[in-house]
């Protein structure tokens, strides 16, 4: 980590985040950068995951974003990047350094990521298949994942006053649900809806990473 920090602090080394303003996983990284005070070091460079000519496919063979470039080295995915950012600031800022609580936090963050994963699959089903090709069984399967995960958070909300791994990941997921609307969730989860509003009021990283209105 000492070597990585040396590169990070060297102004001659470019630090680039390949992502877009609309990517929920990219937003998660951008929120963390702001919360940790690291955002001024980053240059955001849009990526097109569907373009064969986009060099993202060379930087990340999976062709997925976000992808963080520090000099010539690429790091992905969003969870790996957030672990790195936490370590760069000394550790313990986004997640516990060690012990059982660390793994509880990592598990809940993956649960929040799962909401985003399922929402993206529902979105892609509508984007890449015609209405007569869409699988209602597949859509119901993904919506079931989102509904169960939302219910779990409704019954065990993280502290909205803190901008840590679980909170940032959950906020990014809910923001994506509010934009793409793969399912209506607020009425069934009023405490979670209120939680997002409180998180947004408490943390500038939410407002500063909102997508520009088209």
Automatic annotation (TrEMBL):
InterPro entries: Glutathione-S-Trfase_C_sf, Glutathione_S-Trfase_N, Thioredoxin-like_sf. It comes from the Bacteria. Residues 13-93 form the GST N-terminal domain. CDD domains: GST_C_6. This is Glutathione S-transferase family protein. It comes from Sulfitobacter porphyrae. The lineage of its organism: Bacteria, Pseudomonadati, Pseudomonadota, Alphaproteobacteria, Rhodobacterales.
């Amino acid at each position: 980590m000492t070597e990585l920090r040396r590169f990070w602090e060297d102004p001659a080394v470019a630090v680039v985040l390949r992502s877009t303003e609309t990517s929920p996983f990219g937003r998660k990284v951008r929120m963390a950068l702001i919360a940790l005070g690291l955002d001024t070091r980053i240059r955001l460079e849009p990526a097109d995951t569907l373009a064969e000519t986009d060099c993202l496919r060379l930087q990340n063979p999976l062709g997925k974003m976000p992808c963080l470039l520090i000099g010539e080295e690429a790091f992905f995915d969003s969870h790996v990047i957030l672990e790195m950012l936490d370590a760069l600031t000394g550790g313990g800022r986004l997640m516990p350094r060690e012990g059982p609580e660390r793994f509880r936090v990592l598990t809940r963050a993956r649960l929040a990521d799962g909401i985003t994963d399922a929402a993206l699959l529902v979105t892609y089903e509508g984007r890449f298949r015609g209405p007569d090709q869409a699988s209602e069984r597949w859509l119901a399967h993904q919506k079931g994942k989102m509904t169960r995960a939302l219910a779990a958070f409704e019954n065990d909300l993280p502290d909205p006053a803190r901008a840590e791994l679980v909170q940032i990941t959950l906020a990014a997921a809910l923001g994506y649900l509010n934009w793409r609307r793969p399912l209506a969730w607020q009425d069934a989860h009023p405490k979670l809806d209120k939680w997002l509003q409180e998180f947004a009021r408490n943390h500038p990283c939410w407002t500063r990473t909102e997508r520009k209105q088209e």
